[in-house]
Specification:
Alpha/beta knot; 3-stranded mixed beta sheet; 20% strand; alpha/beta; 2 domains; Trp Operon Repressor, Chain A; binds 6-chloroguanine
Length: 229
């Protein structure tokens, strides 16, 4: 029996642009984890559930206004086609609560995720209410659709699953992990690049001094960027 099969985080994405997936989720450590079946990916093309000959997935908003709204009947059929209902339902939209690392950690402990990528001016509210979707945004700016936001959310969540990060990448000293501090600056060889030298303390071999220097750098950079976490 394959040990990795004992834990499979189930991801289902509903989108009208299924061709963009897996994109960045298919490379590097998260891509290897997908091949190792640590997590599982199903892409559902919402347009497959359209009923008319034009395969319409959107229509004009009741009450008037600009743009098009994703139709509840079509999305409903797409959701009803999913057999698994143990997963947490998330809708990616700029109206949602902004994602942070606490939310990311919480989502990584779910059985899996059903991610609905919003497009156009929005999604009929009845779908969000009826299927109990939680609305999530990735920041205070607007992008054209939930697909890129889905990449951001999944990259942040999937790397926390057991067995995804390699031995060289540790979770405990990273930005936002425990102390909500940003990471210290990093340097590698060559020691002299264009006449700019690596900070001397890092080449001293004194582990105590290095740790103190790094801790101080983390505090300073966090203060100077005035994080609103
Ligand atoms: Cl999740 N979607 C869109 N369209 N724009 C956003 C967003 C999501 N999060 C921030 N801006």
């Amino acid at each position: 029996m394959d040990i990795a099969n004992n834990f499979k985080y189930d991801v289902k994405i509903l989108s009208i642009f299924p061709e963009v997936f897996p994109g960045p989720l298919g490379v590097s450590l998260i891509g290897s984890a997908l091949k190792k079946k640590i997590w599982n990916l199903d892409i559902i093309n919402i347009r497959d559930f359209a009923k008319d000959k034009h395969k319409s997935v959107d229509d004009t908003p009741y009450g008037g206004g600009a743009g098009m709204i994703m139709k509840p009947d079509i999305i409903g059929l797409a959701i009803d086609s999913l057999k698994d209902n143990r997963s947490k339902r998330i809708c990616l939209t700029p109206r949602g609560k902004v994602l942070n690392q606490d939310k990311v950690k919480e989502l990584s402990t779910e059985h899996g995720l059903i991610l609905l990528c919003g497009r156009y001016e929005g999604i009929d509210q009845r779908v969000i209410d009826f299927y109990d979707f939680e609305e999530v945004s990735i920041g205070n700016y607007v992008i054209s659709g939930g697909e890129s936001a889905t990449f951001v959310l999944l990259e942040s969540v999937l790397r926390l699953l057991p067995g995804v990060l390699g031995g060289n990448e540790t979770l405990n000293e990273e930005s936002f992990s425990d102390k909500d501090l940003l990471e210290y600056p990093q340097y590698t060889k060559p020691r002299n690049w264009n006449g700019i030298y690596v900070p001397e303390v890092l080449t001293s071999g004194n582990h105590n001094e290095i740790k103190n220097w790094r801790d101080k750098q983390r505090i300073e950079i966090t203060k100077s960027r005035k994080l609103d976490t």
